Automatic annotation (TrEMBL):
Residues 380-464 form the Cytochrome c domain. The chain crosses the membrane at residues 41-62, 74-93, 146-164, 176-196, 208-230, 236-256, 311-330, 342-361. Pfam families: Urate_ox_N (PF06181). GO terms for molecular function: electron transfer activity; heme binding; metal ion binding. It comes from the Bacteria. PROSITE patterns: CYTC. The keyword Cytoplasm does not apply. Keywords: Heme, Iron, Membrane, Metal-binding, Transmembrane, Transmembrane helix. This is Putative membrane protein.
Length: 468
């Protein structure tokens, strides 16, 4: 264990060097927060980067236990708001597509739908003109989107930028300081939204299919760029955050403002500009088809087989296609245009191909030990002892009863690897995280060597052989 603690001291020094000067980072953060840009997305970008730099410079001073609770609460809020946004979005898509024009409807009503829920019946009608009398209370569905993006932004800063050394930066990919990772991440997301806006407002926006294909390849390009600066986990998450930003920004800058203009025109007795409805419809359609891929990308940080593969970008593309065709099935079904069951076949093929790419592209293929002789009780015990020494020296800084890694209060996910018993109990997790995918140690911060991974793989192979 002495050697392990020496290594921890060395890695801690590298970690501190990567952090940069907290005072300088804080100064830049305040400068961005107090700066007054022209407005719009630039104001949001300045505020976002300023907040990120302040958290990076000051967040480490917060007690690790409080920091852990903040992370948990942010995740909780983000999931709740995302459920509200996605749920309301899917509901209104279903409602819009299921509306039917019936005899006897008031003038200006484009269709109605009858629904039953909770023991009661609901009669939903859609007005294409202002109703005879505007209701005193009119609900705007917007804060579900805004709250999801805001909570997600706070979460990505708190986890992926404050602890960039563990979750974002991989020196083997690109040696960055945490503030540089934050600047690249936030700047890249903001730039991608500006490109998205240009594409949607260009002549391509008149052809939804062509624009969709262009956006698909643009997502792949952005994902590739993220893999060139971040580790796989952060690249997947930033790709998801990029798409989610397009979706929420469309609600904030296009859909809601256009709806307000349409309502104002209807109240004034004017015919709304058809362009406003077309713009909002285009963005709503994008949000509809991109929802499922975004959810996958946000959840992927828990499953390294996808993001650790050398085919990570291709896997992202396959997930985008799978999510889009599944939504196409439900859109067609809700609109009473038939049930394109072929969509499920395409989605299944994409998922199967993604799984295959994750297996053949995993970095741990070279670690898989091939036994040339049958294992004995003695060889299994010896290989386990060697594996224990390796795991304790490389992993127990965090995965211990009392972690000593800066910013970690309890063993991540409750997984302890500081005793032989705990190591044996978590053998399958060790196999996936350290042998097959190299996801752990994160960014290889403790510099676990390939030979050490082979040592662990040898123990697992011998253990498996004795169970056959």
């Amino acid at each position: 264990m002495t050697e392990g603690w020496k290594l921890f001291d060395a890695v801690s020094g590298r970690q501190a060097a990567m952090a940069g000067s907290p005072g300088k980072v804080k100064e830049f953060g305040l400068r961005f927060l107090l700066k007054k840009p022209p407005g719009g997305p630039f104001a949001i970008g300045n505020a976002a980067l300023g907040y990120a730099l302040l958290i990076i410079s000051s967040g480490r001073m917060i007690d690790p236990q409080i920091s852990e609770w903040i992370s948990q609460l942010l995740r909780w809020i983000h999931v709740i708001t995302a459920i509200a946004w996605i749920g309301s979005s899917f509901y209104f898509i279903h409602l819009d597509l299921s509306l039917k024009k019936r005899e006897g409807l008031p003038e200006g009503v484009g269709g109605e739908a009858w629904q039953v829920h909770g023991g009661g019946f609901y009669n939903m009608r859609k007005y294409f003109v202002a109703p005879p009398e505007m209701p005193k209370e009119l609900t705007w569905f917007k804060w579900e989107s805004y709250s999801t993006w805001i909570s997600g932004f706070f979460l990505i800063v708190w986890v992926y930028y404050l602890h960039a050394d563990l979750y974002t930066i991989d020196p083997a990919v690109r040696a960055l300081a945490p503030w540089q990772a934050a600047a690249i991440g936030i700047g890249g997301i903001l730039l991608s939204w500006l490109v998205y806006e240009v594409l949607c407002r260009s002549p391509l926006g008149r052809n939804g299919v062509v624009l969709g294909v262009v956006l698909f390849f643009y997502i792949l390009l952005a994902a590739f760029v993220f893999t060139q600066v971040f580790n796989g986990r952060a690249a997947f998450l930033h790709t998801g955050a990029m798409i989610a930003t397009w979706m929420s920004a469309s609600v904030f800058f296009i859909i809601i403002p256009n709806q307000k203009k349409v309502v104002a025109d209807l109240l004034a007795g004017r015919s709304p500009d058809p362009r406003l409805g077309k713009e909002a419809k285009l963005r709503s359609t994008h949000n509809n088809y991109l929802t499922l891929p975004v959810i996958f990308l946000m959840l992927s940080n828990h499953y390294p087989l996808a993001w650790s593969s050398r085919y990570a970008v291709a896997i992202i593309g396959l997930i985008v296609i799978a999510g889009a065709v599944v939504r196409h099935f439900f859109n067609s079904r809700h609109a009473h245009k038939g049930s394109p069951w072929w969509s499920w076949g395409v989605a299944a093929a994409c998922i199967a191909l993604a799984i295959w790419l994750s297996i053949v592209g995993k970095p741990g293929n070279a670690n898989l030990a091939v036994l040339t002789t049958p294992p004995t009780t003695e060889t299994v015990a010896a290989s386990f002892d060697e594996a224990v020494l390796t795991i304790q020296s490389r992993c127990s800084m965090c995965h211990a009863a009392e972690p000593v890694w800066d910013g970690i209060a309890v063993a991540p996910k409750g997984v302890r690897l500081d005793t032989p018993e705990e190591i044996a109990r978590h053998a399958e997790l060790i196999r996936v995280q350290s042998v097959l995918t190299h996801a752990m140690p994160p960014n290889n911060v403790t510099e676990m060597t390939l030979d050490e991974r082979k040592t662990v793989a040898s123990w697992l192979a011998q253990k498996d052989a004795t169970l056959r």
